[in-house]
Amino acid sequence: MKVHCQAETFVAAPLRPAFAMTVDPVRFPEFFTGYGPIAGIESVIVDAPLRPGSIRRVLSKDGSQLSEAVTVLDPPLRHAYVLTGFGRPFSWLVRRGEADWTATASGDGTRLRWDYHFTLASPFAWPLAWPLLKICMTGAMRRCLANMAAAHAQPRPPGAA
């Protein structure tokens, strides 16, 4: 049994810089700030250059650690990964998440779309997992994309990385 979450936004940036935000291990934590019980990201640690098969360790602000196994990398159009390693109590509800990011040139910017398909740990998890994912995880995804869009809406100060 799966739960699908989806978020989409327009970023006022060309395709390559917009896509780069979705795979940047240094900047991504500033965008993913969480929502409700979904914790923000403290840091992302990569084991090797990004490619299919590489692993990213995601350290959450609540102290949990997750793993992202990259399954697709087609810059600047798409990247996908499988998220595992959920801690309790989340692991009682969700076994894994399959994420898929797509970027499409759109007028004077880029449309970013982020889909997640979460496999539930059990059909009995549905009554708790569905609202948690559909409300809180989708909220976290939308907030992340809004933060990315805002980062390109305002010029960065001179000397800022």
Describe the protein in words.
With 161 residues, the protein is an alpha+beta fold. It has one domain: START domain (Alpha-D-Glucose-1,6-Bisphosphate, Chain A, domain 4), CATH 3.30.530. Helices cover 25% and strands 42% of the residues. The strands form 2 sheets. The chain has a 7-stranded antiparallel sheet. A two-stranded antiparallel ribbon has the order 2-3. Strand 5 (55-60) and strand 6 form a beta hairpin. The N and C termini lie far apart (42 Å).
Observed structural traits:
single chain, 161 residues, alpha+beta, Alpha-D-Glucose-1,6-Bisphosphate, Chain A, domain 4, seven-stranded antiparallel beta sheet, 3 helices, 9 strands
**CATH homology-level superfamily:** START domain
CATH architecture: 2-Layer Sandwich
Cross-sheet strand order for the largest sheet: 1-9-8-7-6-5-4
Share of β-strand residues: 35-45%
Low-confidence stretches: none
- The SSE order reads EHHEEEEEEEEH
Give the topology, please.
Blueprint: E1 2-11, H1 15-23, H2 28-31, E2 34-35, E3 38-39, E4 41-46, E5 55-60, E6 65-74, E7 78-84, E8 94-106, E9 109-120, H3 126-153
Antiparallel strand pairs: 1-9, 2-3, 4-5, 5-6, 6-7, 7-8, 8-9
In short:
The chain is an alpha+beta fold.
